[in-house]
Design goal:
heterodimer; A: alpha+beta; two-stranded parallel ribbon; B: 886 residues; 14% strand
Chain lengths: 109, 886
Amino acid sequence: MGRDEIYPGTLDLLILKTLGRESPMHGFEIARAIQQRSGDVLQVEEGSLYPALQRMLVKGWVKGEWGLTDENRRARYYRLTAAGKRQLESEVSQFERVIGAMRKVIEKA
Amino acid sequence: MRIAERARGLWMLLRRGKAENELREEMRLHRELRERELQGNGATVREARASTTRRFGSETLWRERARDAWGWRWLEDFGNDLRIAARALRKSPGFALVATITLGIGIGANTALFSVIDAVLLKAAPFPNADRMISVHVSTLLFPNFRLGLSWPAFEAVRTQAGAVEKAAAYSSSEKTWIANGEPSLLSATGVTEAFFEQFGSQAQLGRLLVDGDQEPGRDHVAVISDALWRTRFGASPQAVGQRMILDDESYTIVGVAPPQFSYPEKTQVWTPLALPAAARAQPIFFMLDVIATLRRGERMERAQEQLQAIASQLAKETPDLGTGFALPATPIREEEMPRSKRGYFVLQGGALFVLLIACANLSSMLLARGLERRREMAVRSALGASRWRLVREALAESGLISMLGCAAGMCVARGGVAIFQAIAPADTPRLSQIAIHAAVLWFAVGVSLAAGIALGLVPALRAARTAPNETIRQSTGPNALARDYGKRLKFGGGLVVMEVALAFVLLSGSLLLTRTLAHALQESPGFRTDHLLTFDLPAPRQIQAQSDEAQARRNAARAKAILARVASVPGVEGVAITSHPLLTGMMSMSSNLQVEGALPARSEERSAYLRAVSPGYFQMMGIPVLRGREFTERDSEGSSAIIVNESMARQYWDTLDVIGRRISTSLDKKKQPQWREVIGVVQDTRDVRVVDRPVAEYFVPILQSSSGGSVLVRTRLEPQTLAKTVSRAIWDEFPRQPVTRVMTMTQTIAESLGDKRMSAVLLDAFAGIGLLLALVGIYGVIAFTVARRTQEVGIRMAVGAQPRQILGMILRQGMLPIAVGTVLGIAGALALGRLLASQLYGVKASDPLTFAGAALLLGVVAALACYLPAKRAMRVDPVVALRYE
């Protein structure tokens, strides 16, 4: 299909970033947003969103509230908390450090 | 932060039904939206569904991962493991039952004994400051081997001069006659100085305890009674406080009741202020006051001892007559309170521990067998993806569950055990009624059983997890199924059998030794006729003890004579005699610094002997042969200087029995000249102090010369017990204030004196019996298991012509080998541990070959039986069935 799997551990970052841009969102919206943003290149196994969201709920990075979709379906809408925003910043900067370092290695080669 | 996370996780776990539903709902929505989107892009319903499923992944897996995210997975798993284990145990109730009982017996016996030791030995001195409290004594070579009390000056020196001592109090116990409702009885009374009760930090349960100021003359006729006395004699009435009680003709007012647990010194019934006449207070050579002291906080025992030593040196310098080696040894009060037969309890605890070890070996063997039986199941599950850790965890949960069941069973056994102990322990065991299985012991039991369960469960569980599944499955279905596995099992099972047999042997030989000790002690003749003999003590009333002039002494003698005559006139009485202290109760009096005329030079250093005063006709009535000369007659009573020695004494000092007319001085007169007494008779040795003590040198003087109470011996025509009441009444008719105590038959006295030996023997017998039974079960289990595993092999052997008897021989040979090894190890162990038992034994050596042979024989028979039953089953194997067996 020509879709790339995401690097392990970056799923949290993607979810946080997505929610940081626009929230609240429910699970399917988050998945779709990640795919659209990446131009359908990044592909998550969609179910893996849910354990990740549960983990983030427990960690207190996101909050979930039940609401209704446009079509009047019950859905859980996730929103970043203050702790989630801090986590997003630290993950972004860490990610950039890693990518930066990798880029240097690749360019030299 | 971490805590908040844990709490959120726990919240999810607690409402996990709802959380799961929410998760399900989210996922359903997700999939529906995705399907609809795909359909919108032109896919068919079917394609959309398949594609959605592919992109979503396994919903079950994601839900499980989500649960993991809560962080409480282990708890859930634990619950699951327990449920699985419980189900597995329900499916094999036989295994569960035997395992529970086995462990229950082991844990129960240990818990019961631990409770007993805790109450009897460790709980001694339950006072708040007990750690800082010491008791101080005197030792001097004047009276070697005796622990004496202090004089008043010595007590004052300790109280005021020892810097490490914060408070000190002296006390002195005696027996006082108490006449209540016309019946005189004896109370154990303790006179105490100031600062006695306050050191114990106790509060009166009614009224008050003795306080400073009670000791002042004129105000000192107050008394505190013990809880036991209050309950038994005052009906626990609040009106007891304020009542008067007449003790030794003096009137005391009861001011309070001591708290229920308080009994110091042990068995005291009434405490009064210590009344010490001025003359006695000034006397430096006086060994009557027991002293307890509390050390200052942070002071060490060693420093107190140094200070006491300095005080002792000073006192000895001032009063050289205190004797050489005068010292003031101090003992922590906790040690003071321990019963004499301390070692006996540790022997018993050792026995209980052996039972537990055997129980554990059995359990281990059972778990191992079970592990092997379930290998195939484990292998299949492992092949289906169960992790090894998970299998190990399940096995652990199962053994943990058994431990908990065993623990519960153990508590029941322990309760029963404590009740049995209370029934058979000697009545004077301290705090006997207070034995309770309390929290510390409960945790001990839980700890032991959990540790046992986990340790025992781990071996088979790890083994099961280590084996590669395909190999196990292939092995257990292939024709040569179990050869290798069987070999390992035999080695391990054999090891267990060796251990069990060794432990059972040590237990068995120990119990046989104690049983033989008891039998020896019971058979031992004390050297006099013990049948038809009633005894009781006649404590002399105080006014008689106190008077010492010649005329009074004669009146006392007349009084004692009158009492004896009164007793002799009771119908059914054949003879009566009186002696200075009761027989066979461990009581004795020792006479030192004897001067013996014509004694062998080599023996001149040993100048002490037991001393007993007896009435005329004592030897004849007691059936003690007079070997030379004669015994005392009425004529010897009037101030004669006659003395009778026993065989041992004659031989020790003169090396001959022909010693009539030789002279012994037992004391000095006022001019420090020896007061010579002349030997008029030699009597055969008796064991009159304890049945199990070898006779030693002893001499006898006429009792009526100095009479002040004593122990009366009545030879009866009928059962002695039937005369007990009549005799007491006969005495009270004439002497209404004369207490009559400890009315017992001689047979009862002997039984009571052997109480602790009986207890040790009975309990260790019980442990050995249980140990043997467990070993039997264990050996049976191992052999039965190996036989079952070898069914196929046996079938082949029989198919190619082996006779059933050969099969039987083969199994028995292999089964008995570890038993023989175990017995040898057991003998070695019993020899090594014999030292500990030696002090408990009488009439038999700790390494007694006959006992060992008996134990080996008994064990061998039991073991052979345990092997024979499964071997017999193997013999009956039908080859056709066996070959099909898997």
